[in-house]
């Protein structure tokens, strides 16, 4: 289980190695993604709060990166944070996410990206529920819900 100190350590000293990497040109990403997905994943935009696909959806399954299909979060770790964006307590795997300090908009935050394709997902905050205390605040446009099989 990751905690805030782990997040800060990754952001400061280096992220875990991804299982593989996906690298494409901006032109290829623009062809493969919807305009909103491109804006969020590749240009670090933020979608409007409460007006996004997964904010109020609590279906079982797994959330994968809309850019490369890598597993990011389990629906079992999703919770109602009243933030306006889907919120999760933990990533699916320690190396699913990479962390970077973000000082934009006159704030100090930790940006989270897909560790495989470097797509912008959102931010993580230390105000989540116990036991880990993390709140991954994620843009719906960066995710795709995959229903459980079987």
UniProtKB/TrEMBL annotation:
Broad enzyme group: oxidoreductase
MF terms (GO), sorted A to Z: peptide-methionine (R)-S-oxide reductase activity
Domain MsrB, residue spans: 26-148
GO CC, one annotated term: cytoplasm
UniProt catalytic activity: L-methionyl-[protein] + [thioredoxin]-disulfide + H2O = L-methionyl-(R)-S-oxide-[protein] + [thioredoxin]-dithiol
GO terms, biological process: protein repair; response to oxidative stress
Keyword Oxidoreductase: yes
A Pfam family annotated for this UniProt entry: SelR
Record key words, sorted: Oxidoreductase
Enzyme Commission (EC) number: 1.8.4.12
Protein name: peptide-methionine (R)-S-oxide reductase
Organism: Hymenobacter aerilatus
């Amino acid at each position: 289980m990751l905690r805030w100190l782990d997040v800060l350590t990754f952001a400061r000293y280096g992220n875990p190695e991804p299982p593989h990497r996906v690298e494409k040109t901006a032109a290829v990403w623009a062809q493969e993604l919807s305009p909103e997905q491109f804006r969020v994943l590749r240009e670090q935009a933020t979608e409007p709060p409460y007006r996004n696909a997964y904010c109020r959806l609590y279906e079982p399954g797994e959330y994968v990166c809309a850019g490369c299909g890598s597993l990011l979060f389990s629906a079992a770790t999703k919770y109602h944070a009243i933030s306006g964006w889907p919120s999760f307590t933990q990533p699916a795997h320690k190396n699913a996410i990479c962390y970077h300090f973000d000082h934009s908009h006159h704030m100090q935050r930790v940006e989270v990206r897909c560790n495989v394709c470097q797509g912008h997902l959102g931010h993580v905050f230390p105000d989540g529920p116990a036991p880990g205390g993390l709140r991954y605040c994620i843009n719906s446009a960066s995710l795709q819900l995959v229903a459980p099989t079987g």
